[in-house]
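@channel sequence for tomorrow's demo:
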Amino acid sequence: MLIEEIQKSIKDLKRLDKVESAVQDAEKKNQNDADYSAIVADFWRSIKTVSLAHSLLSFDLSDDSIEHATDIANRLEDVVAAGAVDEEELKEVKQQINRKFNPSLTREWKDYYLRISSPVRSKIATVGSLVQDQNKLSMIKNRIANASEWTGLSLKDDGNQTRLDWLKMSIDEVDKIEEELNLTEEIKNFVIAVTRKKAKVVDITPSIIEWINEEKLGDNFVIEFKKI
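structure tokens (generated this afternoon):
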């Protein structure tokens, strides 16, 4: 009788062990599935951002980054080729994304951003003091600055437009501001001299006076004695 009860208890323990193992396997599978979904979503978001940056600003990835992206896409398919997530393969793909692909994106965007934003900042420095709506100009500056980091480009600060969209619109807006000011080379050089506090009275030619009057910018310029 006692032996039968012991044998029954052992069977019950084995049954419980199998149930516990099945639960653990299910939890592990769910975790792997969740990790896979998160990695795919993050990778796809990066690819969409690259596509948008190319469409708006002609941003192109290097050949190495394109090769990484292609390889990652293929490997993500292989991860679930057998109908379930291969945990080890997923871990390797995740490392490839975090250690190679993402750092490359960050570096390449930073270099490109500096190339396209520097001329715009120079224009703002030149014509900024001539803009009537300084609040608008400040907003443009902030939106350009907000697009400096790759990881934030897809964010929608206003709920509608991404930071990439605002960067493109801000660049276009600065070009429009400069165009509407009707700056000839002579006037542009004069404005730059004024901005650097190196303009002289003799630099004010009849054509510059005419331009100031036409654009109604008389209140934007002040003549001062040079401090000796």
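heads up for whoever presents: Confidence is low (pLDDT under 50) at residues 16-23.
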